[in-house]
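S1.2 Input.
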Amino acid sequence: MWRTPAWTTRRGRDAMKGNQTQIPLLNMAANPPILIVWHGRFGERRWIEFLLSPLNVTHAEAGTPMAGAEPAVIHAVSTGNTGIPKDSEILQRVRSDIAAGKKVGIIHLSDEWFRCDTSWYKGAAFVLKFYYCSFVSHPAIKYLPLGCPEHIAPPDKIRPASERGLLWSFCGQRKYSRIEMLKALRKISPHRYPQEYISSEDYQNMVNDTVFSPCPMGNTTPDTWRFYESLEAGCIPIVEKRWTIDYFARIFPDACPIPRFQTWGAAGRWIRNHSDGQLRDRLQADILRWWASEKAKLCTQVSKFVVERFEKHPEGSLTDWAPPYRGVAHTVRWVAELCRYTTPRSLFARILKQSGLTSIAKRK
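S1.3 Output.
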């Protein structure tokens, strides 16, 4: 469901600063001008601009004539889930800037399935990337939390958890671990799970009136827009963790207070045990304070990473980068990575879908 972009309003542009987030200031005199070239329209743009807001940054859309003198360029590129052709204009522009001796950074959007060929990173000063993948690793590659999409604007005022009408809510496709989530929580009321299309306004109102926001994993990883939408709306997100990886503890290593469970049955029992309104309000306040602090910290960390990587280039850069696996070895490593994030039941459903057996069974 697509909603009216909040980016077109001042409130939307400033929304990432909510909950008393203090934007850190860096020494602008020490930061060279940086040009970000956006190769498309991305839901993550507002979040990325927020993270880089302490820097001396200007923005340009792909195809805009350039003076050619910009010393440091960041290309924001979405490769989709299968990659982009090696002869595409986007990659030609990235290679051309690297060959011209410019300091080039990359923001790699998408690649949720870890399928994309990363050989085009070669020569870049750094890469900012979403969706943590353990076998795409280098000191010059920094993983970012997915963040709240630009088409969601946080409320002007966050209501206390004790004053909200819905104990939990969810809006999304019924698949994979979401099936387990819905089964475990369906008897906990009041709740809302719209199974038909709802408007942007209706969705926003629903989230703003929700106490606990279950955030089951997306197609491949636990990192989804819903998690950050819930944080900005003042909900208490509930996320999954696996015995192979505690995803949110990894991307937020400093005392992450988000409730995380290995099963949705355990999550349901936890919700029932948190029936006291004051207890919910305290937990909500703790999470809001943590998220405001975390956003400010991320601004500092990401901005310093960019400045330091540009300053050190080519030392420590991706000058000799090559994908660590190819062919069969990549396939085996790729499957192993996907298995880290899923439950046995979800894995079985995914295998059926990928093999085509699910569609055959439906036809019968």
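S1.4 Remarks. The radius of gyration is 21 Å.
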